[in-house]
Amino acid sequence: MVANKFNDEIIFRGDSYDYVTKPLDEKELNLRLKNLLKIKELKETINQVSTTDALTGLHNRRFLHERLEAEIARSKRYDTKLSCLLLDIDFFKVVNDMYGYDWGDVLLKKIAEMLKGFIRKEDILTRYGDEEFIVLLPNTPEENAFIFAERFRREIEKMEFIPAGEEERHPITISGGIASYPFLQNVEEDGNTLIRYAEHALYNAKKRGKNKIVQFSQINIEY
Q1: Of 39, 75, 79, 142, which shows the fewest CB atoms inside 10 Å?
Q2: Domain covering 61-218, topology
Q3: Which of 154, 153, 201 is nearest to 177 (CA)?
Q4: What ranges do the domains of the chain cover?
Q5: Average pLDDT for 79-97
C-alpha cells in the first residue's frame, strides 16, 4: 500500500491494483482490504485445485512437472542424488472389472494413504496416472530408494483389501521402477529423462512377472 507523490490517494498493490482517495474512509478501506484478501485466497485455492488430484488429495502430474526441474537444479547445485520411484498397481483393471470403479477408487485412496505414511517430509508424492504414483526422493541414491520401495512393496502384499460382499481379501501387488539423477555420463539429462528411465525400469519389472521393484542401473538399455 503506497501513496502517490501528491499524497492524495492510497494505492493497494497485489496481483491487481485498487485505491482509495483521501481523506480516508475507514469503512471503505476495510472493505477494500477484505476484497483483496478474498481475491488472494481465491487465487491460492485455484492454484491448489489445479495441482491436486481430486480423488486421492495427492499432488498431480502438473505439480510434479513444476517441481521436477527445480529438484534437478537443486541436485546439480549441491551434487546430490535425486531418485524417482514410479509405482504401478498390478492388475488394477481386474479390480475395476470384478468389483466396479468405486472399489478401484477405494484401492487408489488406500494406497495413497499408505504412501503418505511412508515418505519423508522432503519427499514429493504425486498421482502420476490412473494407477500410477511417483515419489521424488531428494538427496537419495538409487540403492536407498530401492530399500524404501521394497519395504513399501512388501506392505502392499500384506494389505487387507476386501470389497463389499467378499469373504476373503483380494490380493494386491505393485511393481516399481527406480531411476536416479544424474545417471549417464555425457548425456544431457532433465526431468523428463529421469521419468523415462523410471518408466523403462517399471516396464522391466512388469516384464519379469510383476510384484517387483527394478532399478534402472540394473538393466541394459542402449542410448
Answers
A1: 79
A2: Alpha-Beta Plaits (3.30.70)
A3: 201
A4: 2-50, 61-218
A5: 97
